[in-house]
Amino acid sequence: MSKIKGAIVVNTDRCKGCGLCIAACPKQAIAMADKKVNVSGYPYVEPSIQADACTGCKSCAIVCPDGCITVYRKKVEE
Predict the structure, then answer these.
(1) Which residues span the domain enclosing 57?
(2) What is the mean pLDDT of each run of 10 residues along the chain (78 residues)?
(3) What's the rounded Cα separation, in Å, for the pair 5 and 55?
(4) Which residues contact 41 (CB under 8 A, 6 or more apart)?
(5) What's the domain count of the chain?
(6) Which residues contact 47 (CB under 8 A, 6 or more apart)?
(7) pTM of this prediction?
């Protein structure tokens, strides 16, 4: 039986730290970066400690108003 594994890549230079993706993620696989800001001075999001829980559902990418998140999905054989 195969399982879908997801991974996200955040364009931190464009992220404004609105947090919509954090609220949309059903697995809490995204978190605000601790005390980090991008080149524009905004805090940004990054994969959290629980990033392995990502299923690739793309909820984060759909709600991102700036299109900063790219989601990748891969089948993993168990």
Answers:
(1) 2-77
(2) 88 95 94 92 92 92 96 87
(3) 5
(4) none
(5) 1
(6) 7, 8, 10, 29, 30, 31, 54
(7) 0.86
3-class secondary structure, 72:
strand
Distance CA 21, CA 60 (A): 4
Structure tokens at 7: 């991974």
Q: What is the DSSP string of 13-68?
A: TT-----HHHHH-TT--EEEEEEEE-TTS-EEEEE-TTGGG-----HHHHH-TT--
The tokens of 22 are what? 């954090």
State the Cα–Cα distance between residues 67 and 50, nearest whole angstrom: 22
**Residue 55, domain CATH:** 3.30.70.20
